[in-house]
Amino acid sequence: GNSVTQMEGPVTLSEEAFLTINCTYTATGYPSLFWYVQYPGEGLQLLLKATKADDKGSNKGFEATYRKETTSFHLEKGSVQVSDSAVYFCALQTGANNLFFGTGTRLTVIP
Amino acid sequence: EADIYQTPRYLVIGTGKKITLECSQTMGHDKMYWYQQDPGMELHLIHYSYGVNSTEKGDLSSESTVSRIRTEHFPLTLESARPSHTSQYLCASSDRAPRTDTQYFGPGTRLTVL
Predict the structure, then answer these.
(1) Coil, helix or strand for A66?
(2) Any chain B CB within 8 A of the CB of A89?
(3) Cα atoms in the 13 Å half-sphere on the side-chain side of A16
(4) Nearest alpha-carbon partner for B71 in B36, B95, B44
(5) Residue B48 and residue A42: Cβ atoms within 8 Å?
(6) Is residue A43 within 8 angstroms of chain B, CB to CB?
(7) A25-71: pLDDT as tens digits
(8) Would the CB atoms of A99 and B103 count as touching at under 8 Å?
(9) Is B95 exposed, middle or buried (0-12, 13-18, 19+ CB in 10 A)?
(10) Is the CB of B101 less than 8 angstroms away from the CB of A96?
(11) Separation of alpha carbons A104 and B2, rounded Å
């Protein structure tokens, strides 16, 4: 079956620190992979996605590379800002099926 | 930028009341979804729709019902609200890209049942 295992939080970092949030998956077939972000009091926003192995998704300084050999899609950012404080969700989709979400990781960035 | 709207944003209501959470999108998307988000942040799919007159139950059993009479509108109804229904409800819609259905989310409705 399909599942997403996401690094448990909460994660607290100082401004300008390096961020990694781990995400691994199991899937039948060849999934597409996503990172969504949820800012306080809001719905989810698509942050980035990758649709095939070795693709790199990037947006707003965040990056994630689709690694088929390790079934991973880790989220990284070189220098976080206070405004990056949010909950981050890893998700996968196979074909026209629905999204499978991880449990979310809360990031707090302190000045 | 996605255009998907949910009303109300916040709702506090007494036990036994009937409520309808509204969701509308202006993107012409065929697929729409309702998620329930618990305080631990985990998202659970409770309903989805492939298009007009299509409704399907999601992964989490829910006492709510949905309807899809118009493409742009996907309301969720609780006939008799209970405290166990207290949660955040997120609506989403998706396009049909060649290989993926990127979902766009509304801002959510935070429901509290007293």
Answers:
(1) coil
(2) yes
(3) 1
(4) B95
(5) no
(6) yes
(7) 999 888 999 999 999 888 899 999 999 999 999 999 999 999 999 99
(8) yes
(9) middle
(10) yes
(11) 22
